[in-house]
Amino acid sequence: MQKSYQLSDGKVIACDQGQGEILVFVNPTEEERKYLTETLLLDEHTLNSTMDPDELPRLEFEPSHQAMILKKPKNYSNEDDFLFRVTSMGFFLFRDRLVIVAPDEAALFEARIFTAVRSLHEVLLRLIYRNIFHYREHLKIVNMISEDLEHKINVSLENKYLINLFSLEKSLVYYLNALNSNAAVFERLKNSAAKIGFSPESVELLEDIIIENNQCFRQAEIYSNILAGLMDARASIVSNNLNVLMKTLNIITIAIMVPTFVVSAFSMNVRIPMEDHPGAFWMVLGLALFSVMGFFLFWRYKKW
């Protein structure tokens, strides 16, 4: 699917297909791939890299354009089951146009940062900034979900919450690897600022991007360390909850067995004391109740 945008009064607005200087291809069709490789002369391997979630980020200089592959958060769905993944995204900067290739639909130009945009270089950098903000949004969601799961683990014996927590920990590992790989591309982008033609304002924005990316990396690292450190503690809590439950069940079982033994003893088909006494029934019940009270007093004394 292809979309076209153009710069107008410092804003990025949608326009008729093929007329704008910003072209966005979402999961391009075979015909669109042919247009990208034959008309725009994009390298076929680089184009395929934009659709490969395992591709490493990189910056390449072609005769007519600069190609950049970055890692971005994948759109989350219910089928992911608490696993946040990353995927690739490609930017191809020409002198008079910017081509963006992504494997899935994403809101690119709706953020407030796309105001007072003066060049395609700024559009590219603000898209990168928007990508980092996307990571930060996902990290907030991961933190909220982990807190909810931790509360459920404290009161539950089920393993599914531990498995969900493990999925979140795995997601943070993906994010850490992606943010670290993107950081290397940003550093190279900064070193090649003059070659690409960045203005001083764009270089300053790029420096802000590097700082934001480092802060996002540190935040993901902190969340990952917290989850990794608490996984064993959560497993111990589940085990302790099971022990408490078994202890409670044992106490209830013993409490029932004591009066049952008393009643059973007076129910044998042999001669027993008080069998001819008119109040024997109530005396047996009283003895059973007394045995229960004695057991609970003994339990309290032992502090079980």
Write a compact overview of the structure shown:
By secondary structure, this protein is α+β, with helices and mostly antiparallel strands. Helices cover 58% and strands 14% of the residues.
Secondary structure elements and pairings:
Elements: E1 2-8, E2 11-15, E3 22-26, H1 30-39, H2 44-49, E4 58-61, E5 66-73, E6 86-93, E7 98-102, H3 120-155, H4 160-191, H5 193-196, H6 200-265, H7 280-302
Parallel strand pairs: 3-7
Antiparallel strand pairs: 1-2, 1-3, 4-5, 5-6, 6-7
How would you describe the overall organization of this protein?
It is a single chain. This protein has 304 residues and is an alpha+beta fold. It has two domains: 2-240, Beta Polymerase, domain 2, CATH 3.30.460; 241-302, no CATH class. 58% of the residues lie in helices and 14% in strands. It has helices at 30-39, 44-49, 120-155, 160-191, 193-196, 200-265, 280-302; strands at 2-8, 11-15, 22-26, 58-61, 66-73, 86-93, 98-102. α3 (120-155) packs antiparallel against α4, α3 packs parallel to α6 and α6 (200-265) packs antiparallel against α7 (280-302). It is rod-shaped, with a radius of gyration of 33 Å.
Q: Please, how many helices?
A: 7
* Count of separate structural domains: 2
CATH topology category name of the largest domain: Beta Polymerase, domain 2
Structural class: alpha+beta
Question: What sequence of helices (H) and strands (E) makes up the elements?
Answer: EEEHHEEEEHHHHH
Q: What fraction of the residues are assigned to beta strands by DSSP?
A: 5-15%
Quaternary structure of the protein: single chain
